[in-house]
Amino acid sequence: MDWWKDIYAAIKEADVKQVVYVPDAGHAALIDACTADNDIIAVPLTTEEEGIAMLAGAWLGGQRGVMLMQSSGVGNCINMISLMRTCRFPLATFVTMRGQWHEFNPWQMPMGQGTEPALKAMDVLVESVEDPEDVGKQSAAILHRAYVGQQSTALLLHQRLMPVKTFGK
Amino acid sequence: MGTLNRAEEFSLQRRDVAKRIAAVGGENLLMVTGLGSTNWDFTAAGDRDLIFPLWGAMGGAVPLALGLALAQPDRRVLVATGDAEMLMGLGSLATVGIQAPVNLGIAVFDNERYGETGMQTTATAHKADIAAIASGCGIAVTGTVRTEDELDAAISSLLEQPGPAVFVIKVRAESLPFVLPAKDGAHLKDRFRLALLGDAAIV
User: Fold this and answer.
1) pLDDT tens digits for B102-123?
2) Is the ipTM of this complex over 0.95?
3) How far is residue A45's CA from residue A23's CA, in Å, rounded to a whole number?
4) What are the chain B neighbours of A122 within 8 Å (beta carbons)?
5) A62/B196 Cβ within 8 A
6) pLDDT (tens digit per residue) in B27-46
7) Residue in A49, A60, A88 nearest the CB of B68
8) Taking CB atoms and an 8 Å limit, are A56 and B54 in contact across chains?
9) Hey, what CATH class is A3-160 in?
10) Structural domains in chain B?
């Protein structure tokens, strides 16, 4: 369960200064690491669409940012992604998936299954990772694609990377 | 006249307010203007490369300016947006309350209307009080402005005193001629970054 350290290492290597997030259990350790890092401003959001706009503002001001969110949050971002596409702002987001692997909560299924098609409908380039060994390389690749390739891109972190959630049921 | 129509009698007029803010803010002020009338107000007051007007992204003006303010802590950043645009992104005031950037001012031009769609009333024509909401989010400097004297003090707070500050400026509900900025988003982004960052803007 240390794959999050590879995302953190990629974020540091890419000189990311703003990490904006809506919490997810799958991102908890990474959020803690970013919050403790004096060279990163970690920003808790009320909704993920704020994060899209914040990353645009960070880039306008000369800084690189990433957003951490759960798959349900992707649905909250859709119209705001227009900002990134129209203005050609880079977008890099790491999405912990629900609704695909030993999911106990049926309310997570629709957006979990809709995450990839919704992102693709907005011309966001989507990669997925299931093997913890690949997380670091995939993370570095999407950050390069965003900041150097000037694209909107997302890395979907498959639910098999996370502990199975049950709420005790 | 019913309460819902009171904004037609407000004394402050938005184009004059924009001119006064622009005069105090000067050439170095970093600005984000929201969809849509505040775009036209500040274009009429004098388009500049360091104004980033939003032709969409409704609800995004404040969080965009927050990302900018955190990236440029030594520069003043001002958002000018409308009541409807602000209402769509109220949660971002809570986010600003947490980060509390001292260099961020938020001016809400409140005509209590959706200006681009037929002047339908917004929640501020009914019950919503955006300054109270901002205060409730922990933003220390807030107020609602209705007169010239109050406006002068608010502009000083927004541009010259430690923030973050949120001022709701009650402006007359009026339909004015369009004065449009460029609408190519990539151009607007690039001109802003070039003016702010110089050669470092080119990636």
Assistant:
1) 999 999 999 999 998 999 999 9
2) yes
3) 9
4) none
5) yes
6) 999 999 999 899 999 999 99
7) A60
8) no
9) alpha beta
10) 3-201 (3.40.50.970)
